[in-house]
Write a sequence for this structure.
């Protein structure tokens, strides 16, 4: 389990990183290395060059406006857990971050790295989908903003263009009365989830979204369930959740559908009692 | 019979709760494992391994450059295959070439060895080797492999059966009389043993001793020496095996591995020190070699749950080859013999099938067969108890061999030497508070929470002797054990044993045994193990034999040495040897005494102080030992668990876990507790987490620790331990083996507890690991057919 030989460059600026990405050959960005490291060692990833973006200040900064909080892609899970990032929705991001793997992983793993890896069972892709966050990229032609549905077209895939780097994640600011629930089922502390349920509601903004995570592919979003919860103020029962999952993703096994339904039900119940 | 003696000034003898001698270096990161060794001109090895489960090798193309870096079975033409013979009728021999020849039979089988200055470069070379394999139909399921028309793992056999055994008792009377009939099928998953240190081997030719010196991470250095000498067709005098620090073995390191032979050959052929260090992925793929059983059990009982007869069929998925020396059949032979466990039943019938498949070769893992048979038997007992409407632990007590029946020869001929099995259940009931649990369970149920309690009993045959091993038909049979004990010129003590410690604390406990006789503190006793160059022959550390056998040998040698010390001391003290006693590392006679240092100085350096007719045998003793019986001595235990099952997620939380065990004399209670914690942790892995999965082509799907889930500290309960010391009448100091025990029972205790919790829903699990997915599947199935129960 030793990686194939590769070149290693450590740019100091985002522009230098973008240049390095475009310099030819297969290039991979190295963030915290918590997923890429094992993939290199298993020789599943075999880049000619690693561009280590750990020293770029631009990627480690956060900004706040009245509309959103912008979190640098290189901010670690541990920093979010510790409250080093302004809070767009009270307590949710630190809570989610504190449940990612182990502290040792959180100390190195980054928000941007996790989103770009797009593992369906990871926390942030489901949570950022539920929060309607947008991905802010940088590229030689300037960059763009991407919504989560476009950004993650499927498991382990993003729609980043060649030479494009995730610079930050823009999370809308929610009202004070917003509520959220997050529940994940893991076989073992620190392992990836077998089911994730996320619920976010902001009545003042008429916003309600439910997300099933750790399903087969990208996060599953159910406007039907969101509407029903917003109208009734109650968590749907398991049978209703399983029916909706059947409609969203017919290929799910009965057991998987139960796990997802339970996770979502517990997320909703946790938020609205 | 000998029993322990305790001395006024020394508290490091048998029974002392002292810290382990080896822990200073282990805990400070100063231990040296194979992976830490570095010799001049040393290169590293990587193996090309089969990417398919079953196929015919068409050709292997070595890269043109660099030359002499890749070796295949053609290069190893003078190397004999690993061949484990057995005298059991119907047994079929398999030849395993250290590097595959003609055919590959499992994913991960070694095809070529590649050497380079670093492991990364060796892996680069391994990738550049062209291997063309014509695929053959893979045998992934043992039952499918038994069907007529199935492909052949070994073409010359005609079928895929390594061995069938039959214990053909009369169960017709039991069947006719039975008020309760319980029929079940059980499955236990294939597992890896996952020692913290993987396998590793470093070999080099030593010109001065004219020997191949092999450092290898093994439990059985002397056996590996024999095995390498056989396969490389060398005289054993030309082979020295050294097991340095070994970071866990559990059985994985008690067999001759093909890599040990290939690395030794490569070192001999190239003249360089060559090292191979197993990585975790190699282990999880090529080391997926244990635990997989399938049971069909029918139990007949009277209305109270007293078992009248047991009818069983056991299928063991033993993989592609027969390991040396324990063969592919030890597992099934033990399973058939041990299924009745500690229960006194009279009618028993059992057929076992050891089936060849395209998986790694089956290797005995801590508990050997008993985690499977204990799981099957203990779930059966609970099913009987439910049918009888009785408390399962009460049904256990009724069926266990009673103390006044000891010694007891059971239905399969096992000779249970001593103990009070029923008392064990009572102790476990008290520890787990069965009495208080049932009301608590009912109250929880009223709140929609599902609590359950489970028990699991077993006997563990330890230190099996000659008769037992020869009955299993093995190619070599352990009998005696030898040890050397000597007093050094400075008065300290050296112990040498050919057994080995891979974490079980033998370095400390053997010193304690020597301390018991010599009365010297264990700080002044050094223990050398693992090096065939300097220790007496021993078949090694397995089958919970170390403390009984090596401990017995050290005891005997130390006893003889103590006598000699007294004789020498008597010269110096001017008295009779029988008037001398040892105390605190001194020989004492009335008011006078001499230290070991003074005695040793007289013997080694100043013989003029001793009379001319002094016994020239001196202060170094090698003695051999065998227990008074060689059918093994039986430890027994009861485990009990309380779990809470989240019936919506399928997650199981262990709320409480109590272990009662009786292993005779405890040499060091703290070491024993460590064994119990570690074994039970592994058993919880078996019960809830660990499972090697294959796709239909025989590709392993659990090749990293993200997929093969092991329990971690947060998944483990705080264990309660209770001990009883029923001394074996047949061993020195009354010691029985305990190394494997605690890994045996958790599957039964935990799944019985889960089933107790799920009973209200009418759901029942019959396989391990009880993953959340399996628990949920059982709950969903019960929802569908709710109302129907057994």
């Amino acid at each position: 389990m030793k990686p194939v030989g590769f070149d290693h460059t450590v740019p100091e600026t985002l522009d230098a990183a973008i240049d390095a990405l475009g310099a030819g050959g297969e290039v991979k960005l190295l963030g915290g290395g918590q997923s890429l490291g094992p993939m290199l060692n298993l020789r599943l990833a075999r880049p000619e060059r690693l561009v280590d973006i750990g020293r770029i200040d631009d990627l480690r900064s956060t900004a706040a406006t009245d509309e959103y909080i912008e979190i640098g892609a290189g901010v670690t899970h541990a920093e979010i857990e510790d409250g080093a990032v302004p809070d767009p929705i009270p307590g949710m991001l630190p809570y989610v971050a504190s449940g990612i793997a182990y502290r040792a992983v959180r100390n190195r793993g980054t928000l941007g790295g996790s989103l770009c890896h797009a593992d369906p069972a990871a926390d942030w892709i489901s949570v950022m989908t539920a929060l309607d966050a947008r991905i802010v990229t940088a590229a030689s032609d300037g960059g763009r903003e991407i919504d989560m549905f476009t950004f993650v077209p499927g498991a382990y895939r993003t729609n980043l263009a060649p030479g494009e780097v995730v610079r930050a994640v823009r999370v809308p600011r929610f009202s004070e009365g917003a509520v959220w629930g997050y529940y994940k089922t893991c076989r073992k502390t620190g392992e990836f989830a077998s089911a994730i349920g996320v619920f976010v509601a902001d009545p003042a903004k008429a916003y309600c979204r439910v997300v099933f995570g750790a399903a087969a592919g990208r996060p599953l979003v159910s406007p039907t369930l969101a509407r029903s919860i917003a109208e009734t103020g109650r968590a749907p029962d398991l049978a209703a959740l399983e029916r909706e999952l059947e409609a969203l993703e017919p290929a799910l096994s009965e057991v998987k559908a139960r796990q997802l339904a339970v996770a979502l039900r517990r997320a909703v119940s946790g938020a609205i009692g | 019979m000998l029993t322990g003696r305790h001395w006024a000034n020394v508290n490091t003898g048998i029974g002392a709760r002292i810290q382990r001698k080896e822990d200073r270096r282990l805990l400070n990161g100063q231990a040296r494992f194979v992976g830490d060794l570095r010799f001049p001109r040393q290169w590293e090895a990587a193996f090309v391994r089969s990417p398919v489960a079953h196929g015919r090798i068409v050709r292997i193309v070595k890269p043109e450059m660099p030359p002499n870096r890749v070796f295949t079975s053609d290069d190893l033409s003078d190397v004999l295959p690993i061949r484990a013979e057995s005298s059991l009728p119907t047994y079929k021999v398999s030849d395993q070439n250290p590097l595959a020849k003609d055919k590959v039979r499992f994913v991960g089988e070694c095809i070529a060895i590649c050497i380079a200055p670093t492991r990364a470069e060796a892996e680069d070379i391994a990738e550049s080797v062209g291997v063309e394999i014509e695929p053959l139909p893979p045998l992934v399921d043992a039952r499918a492999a038994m069907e007529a028309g199935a492909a052949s793992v070994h073409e010359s056999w005609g079928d895929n059966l390594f061995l069938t055994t039959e214990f053909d008792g009369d169960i017709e009377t039991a069947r006719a009389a039975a008020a309760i009939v319980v029929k079940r099928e059980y499955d236990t998953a294939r597992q890896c043993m996952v020692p913290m240190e993987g396998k590793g081997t470093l070999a080099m030719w030593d010109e001065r001793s004219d020997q191949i010196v092999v450092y290898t991470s093994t439990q059985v250095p002397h056996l590996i020496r024999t095995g390498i000498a056989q396969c490389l067709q060398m005289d054993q005098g030309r082979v020295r095996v050294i097991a340095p620090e070994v970071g866990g073995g559990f059985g994985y390191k008690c067999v001759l591995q093909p890599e040990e032979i290939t690395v030794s050959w490569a070192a001999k052929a190239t003249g360089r020190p060559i090292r191979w260090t197993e990585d975790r992925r190699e282990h999880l793929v090529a080391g997926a070699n244990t635990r997989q059983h399938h049971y069909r059990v029918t139990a007949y009982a009277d209305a109270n749950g007293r078992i009248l007869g047991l009818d069983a069929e056991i299928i063991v998925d033993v993989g592609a080859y027969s390991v040396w020396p324990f063969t592919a059949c030890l597992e099934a032979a033990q399973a058939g013999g041990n299924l009745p466990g500690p229960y006194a039943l009279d009618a028993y019938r059992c057929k076992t099938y050891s089936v060849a498949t395209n998986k790694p070769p089956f290797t005995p893992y801590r508990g050997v067969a008993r985690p499977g048979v204990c799981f099957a038997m203990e779930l059966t007992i609970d099913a009987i108890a439910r049918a009888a409407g009785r408390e399962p632990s009460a049904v256990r007590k009724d069926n266990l061999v009673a103390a006044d029946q000891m010694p007891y020869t059971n239905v399969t001929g096992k000779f249970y030497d001593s103990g009070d099995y029923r008392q064990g259940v009572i102790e476990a009931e008290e520890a787990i508070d069965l009495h208080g649990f049932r009301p608590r369970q009912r109250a929880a149920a009223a709140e929609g929470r599902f609590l359950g309690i489970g028990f699991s009993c077993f006997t563990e045959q330890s230190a099996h002797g000659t008769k037992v091993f020869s009955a299993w038909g093995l190619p070599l049979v352990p009998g005696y054990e030898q040890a050397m004990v000597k007093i050094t010129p400075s008065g300290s003590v050296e112990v040498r044993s050919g057994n080995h410690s891979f974490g079980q604390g033998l370095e400390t406990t053997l010193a304690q045994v020597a301390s018991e006789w010599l009365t010297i503190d264990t700080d002044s006793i050094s223990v050398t193990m693992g090096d065939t160059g300097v220790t007496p022959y021993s078949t090694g550390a397995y089958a919970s034999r170390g403390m009984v056998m090596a401990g017995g040998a050290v005891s005997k040698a130390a006893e003889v040495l103590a006598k000699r010390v007294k004789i020498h001391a008597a010269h110096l003290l001017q008295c009779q040897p029988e008037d001398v006693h040892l105390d605190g590392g001194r020989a004492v006679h009335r008011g006078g005494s001499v230290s070991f240092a003074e005695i040793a100085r007289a013997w080694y350096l100043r013989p003029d102080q001793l009379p001319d007719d002094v016994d020239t045998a001196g202060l170094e003793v090698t003695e051999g030992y065998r227990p008074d019986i060689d059918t093994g001595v039986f430890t027994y235990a009861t485990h009990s668990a309380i779990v809470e099952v989240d019936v919506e997620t399928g997650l199981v939380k262990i709320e409480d876990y109590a272990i009662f065990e009786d292993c005779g004399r405890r040499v060091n209670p703290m070491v024993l507790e460590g064994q119990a914690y570690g074994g039970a942790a592994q058993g919880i892995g078996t019960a809830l987490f660990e499972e090697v999965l294959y796709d239909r082509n025989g590709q392993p799907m659990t090749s990293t620790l993200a997929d093969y889930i092991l329990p971690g500290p947060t998944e483990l309960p705080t264990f309660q331990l209770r001990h009883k010391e029923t001394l074996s009448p047949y061993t020195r100091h009354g010691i029985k083996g305990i190394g494997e025990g605690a890994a045996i029972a958790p599957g039964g205790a935990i799944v019985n507890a889960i089933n107790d919790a799920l009973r209200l829903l009418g759901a029942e699990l019959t396989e391990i690991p009880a993953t959340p997915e399996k628990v949920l599947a059982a709950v969903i199935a019960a929802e569908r057919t709710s109302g129907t129960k057994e």
In short: The interface with chain A takes residues 118-120, 123-124, 127, 279-281, 648-651, 689, 704, 706, 709, 711-712, 714-715, 771-773, 776-777, 780 of chain B (CB under 8 Å). The CA atoms of residues 35 and 391 of chain B lie 52 Å apart. Residues 43-130 of chain B form a domain with the Aldehyde Oxidoreductase; domain 3 fold (CATH 3.90.1170.50). The radius of gyration of chain B is 27 Å.
